[in-house]
Amino acid sequence: MADTPAASPTSAARYEAALESFIARLREAAPPGPGRPATLEEALVGGTAWIVQRQIRHGAAADAPGLLPELTEFVVSPYRSVGKR
Fold first, then answer.
1. Would you give the DSSP letter of residue 83?
2. What's the predicted TM-score (pTM) here?
3. Residues 6 or more apart whose Cβ sits within 8 Å of residue 85
4. What is residue 82's DSSP assignment?
5. Is the pLDDT confidence value at 50 over 70?
6. How many CB atoms lie within 10 A of CB 73?
7. Is pLDDT of 42 > 60?
8. Residues 6+ apart with CB under 8 A from 19
9. Does the pLDDT of residue 76 top 90, yes or no?
10. By the 8 A CB rule, do 44 and 17 touch?
11. For residues 19 and 45, is the Cβ–Cβ distance under 8 A?
């Protein structure tokens, strides 16, 4: 995952398609609403991918599953406030 975007044009395209798929799924689950940034899903997916990539680059790939609770909270938290404004 850490080197996929730079490995080849094909791997970069697959990586981008995977990210776009996750972005689309988040948007389907919670369609954009008033006061919510249009780029929220891109930021959430991109931030999550960056954190996992960093973990891998630092030689701690085996510890990456331990990030799941924190990353889940990161992705879900903006949607908890929907309708509370």
1. T
2. 0.81
3. 35
4. T
5. yes
6. 10
7. yes
8. 45, 46, 49
9. yes
10. no
11. yes
| Residue 82, amino acid | V
Structure-token pair, residue 56? 């891998």
Q: Average pLDDT, stretch 58-79?
A: 93
Q: How many CA atoms lie within 13 A of 35 on its CB side?
A: 7
**In angstroms, how far is CA 21 from the centroid of its own chain?**
10
Residue with tokens 């080849």: 8
Please say whether the beta carbons of 56 and 2 come within 8 A. Answer: yes
**What mean pLDDT is predicted for residues 65-73?**
95
Mean pLDDT for all residues in the chain: 87
What amino acid occupies position 41?
E
Q: Which two tokens stand for residue 60?
A: 């701690």
SS (H, E, C) 16-61: HHHHHHHHHHHHHHCCCCCCCCCCHHHHHHHHHHHHHHHHHHCCCH
Please give the structure tokens belonging to residue 20: 């776009």
Residue with tokens 């689950």: 29
